């Protein structure tokens, strides 16, 4: 399953995604990954959530980011959910590239039964129309 939470900067998306990840720990059947663009929120997450700060890795486009996620998944078959805060920041791209990534993630999500929950700083109208079905 793919879920997108969108909103303008400063509307509380990060707080919501952190809360969701922390609540998921209580009932998770597998491991939880939280990907962010820096380490600001590392201490806001419960210890059992695997935190990954993208500022430590040279990722510059969607193909590199997708490969990075596949590497994480291939290393841990027990991943149940992957939370990505600030999708445009963590993979350093623009809106036009998001549908390509989502299509790839849909296949991974189905094959490995992993849920992806991502935030994007934008308003709904900025998103490609094909992505509206993923909005929460």
Q: How many separate domains make up the residues? A: 1
- Overall radius of gyration: 14 Å
CATH architecture level-2 label: 3-Layer(aba) Sandwich
Reported for the largest beta sheet, the result is:
5 strands, parallel
Q: Using the alpha-carbon principal axes, give the shape.
A: globular
* CATH class categorisation: Alpha Beta
Distance between the termini: 12 Å
Query: How many helices does DSSP assign?
Result: 4
CATH superfamily: P-loop containing nucleotide triphosphate hydrolases
β-strand amount: 15-25%
Number of strands: 5
Q: What ranges have pLDDT less than 50 throughout 5 or more consecutive residues?
A: none
Strand order of the largest sheet: 1-5-4-2-3
Helix/strand-derived category reads alpha/beta
Helix content: 25-40%
Q: How would you state the average pLDDT, rounded? A: 91
Output the helix-strand order.
Answer: EHEEHEHHE
What oligomerization state is this entry in?
single chain
What CATH calls the topology is: Rossmann fold
Please tag this protein with its features.
136 residues; alpha/beta; Rossmann fold; five-stranded parallel β-sheet; 4 helices; 21% strand
Notes on the protein architecture:
With 136 residues, the chain is an alpha/beta fold. It has a single domain (2-126), classed as P-loop containing nucleotide triphosphate hydrolases (Rossmann fold). Helices cover 35% and strands 21% of the residues. The chain has helices at 13-27, 62-75, 87-90, 98-112, and strands at 2-7, 31-36, 50-53, 79-84, 115-121. The protein has a five-stranded parallel beta sheet with strand order 1-5-4-2-3. Helix 2 runs parallel beside helix 4. The radius of gyration is 14 Å and the shape is globular.
């Amino acid at each position: 399953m793919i879920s997108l939470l969108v909103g303008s900067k400063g509307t509380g998306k990060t707080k919501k995604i952190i809360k969701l990840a922390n609540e998921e720990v209580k009932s998770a059947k597998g491991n939880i990954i939280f990907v962010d663009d820096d380490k600001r929120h590392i201490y806001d997450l419960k210890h059992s959530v695997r935190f990954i700060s993208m500022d430590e890795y040279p990722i510059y486009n969607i193909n590199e980011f997708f490969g990075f996620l596949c590497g994480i998944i291939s290393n841990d078959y027990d991943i149940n959910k992957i939370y990505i805060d600030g999708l445009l920041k963590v993979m350093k791209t623009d809106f036009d590239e998001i549908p390509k990534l989502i299509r790839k993630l849909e296949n991974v999500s189905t094959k490995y039964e992993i849920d992806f929950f991502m935030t994007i700083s934008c308003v709904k109208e900025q998103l490609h129309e094909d992505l509206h079905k993923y909005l929460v």
